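Propose amino acids for all 265 sites.
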């Protein structure tokens, strides 16, 4: 593979709902912002299906109030992590599909903000050690699939959504790395020992979703972080599968016989 190059310190986190990023990558984001990275959050849904299971008023006014509350909670969570730039796409919560409309919206954001690194959920399910129902909300999988299609090839291909370049001046942009959350196998970890408390604080900001049982949740989250950290000899960690978006050099795959022939020539 090609040698690692210095990345522009711009990252984007693309998730379905307010609080998804805090569960999956808040510690890593905090380490990046501490290191001078500009991190932009993209929240695809309006959060209007995230009320309590015991609710009886689920009408338009209640949903609008809930959406506004969850956006404020997301802003508060981002403040704990050093994230100041958030886009809410306001698609209906619980009704996300991989559509060309949504793909174009994400391509527009990728070309406008030009991140070198994108974090999103893996667009697959993981059955090991067991299927986690809450992780595989259909919105999560739809947003993950759409994000990957937006990154490659659409964002970097001038022939995809040509109106973005011709009418809006948004030139193609190639994302260098995709950091997948919840992948069946991982190849990268981030030591979040020094920022674990900030991850917890960012989750605590989502009071409408997590406040009632936060003490129990915090214990569970710290347990997850610690178990992940033990695998890498640190106190707390988050894990990802990082995919590099690179064009292979034929020399990277040359065999010994190929090399001998080249010398003979």
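Proposal:
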């Amino acid at each position: 593979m090609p040698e690692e190059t210095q990345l522009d310190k711009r990252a984007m986190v693309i998730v379905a709902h307010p609080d998804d990023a805090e569960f999956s990558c808040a510690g890593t984001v905090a380490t990046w912002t501490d290191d001078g990275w500009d991190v932009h959050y993209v929240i695809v849904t309006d959060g209007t299906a995230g009320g309590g299971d015991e609710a009886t008023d689920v009408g338009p006014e209640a949903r609008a109030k809930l959406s506004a509350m969850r956006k404020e909670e997301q802003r508060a969570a981002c403040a704990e992590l050093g994230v100041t730039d958030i886009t809410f796409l306001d698609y209906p919560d619980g009704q996300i599909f991989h559509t060309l409309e949504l793909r174009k919206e994400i391509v527009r954001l990728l070309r406008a903000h030009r991140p070198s690194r994108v974090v999103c959920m893996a667009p697959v399910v993981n059955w090991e050690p067991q299927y986690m129902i809450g992780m595989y909300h259909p919105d999560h999988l739809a947003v993950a699939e759409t994000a990957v299609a937006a990154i490659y090839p659409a964002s970097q291909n001038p022939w995809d959504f040509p109106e973005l370049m011709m009418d809006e001046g948004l030139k193609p942009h190639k994302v260098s790395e995709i950091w997948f959350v919840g992948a069946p196998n991982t190849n990268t970890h981030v030591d979040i020992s020094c920022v674990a408390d900030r991850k917890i604080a960012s989750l605590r900001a989502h009071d409408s979703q997590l406040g009632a049982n936060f003490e129990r949740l915090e214990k569970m989250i710290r347990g997850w972080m610690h178990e992940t950290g033990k695998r890498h000899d640190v106190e707390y960690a988050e894990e990802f599968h990082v995919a590099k978006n690179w064009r292979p050099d034929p020399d990277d795959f040359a065999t010994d016989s190929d090399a001998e022939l080249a010398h003979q020539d």
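The chain has a mean pLDDT of 92. Strands lie at 10-15, 38-45, 85-91, 117-121, 177-181, 188-191, 237-244.
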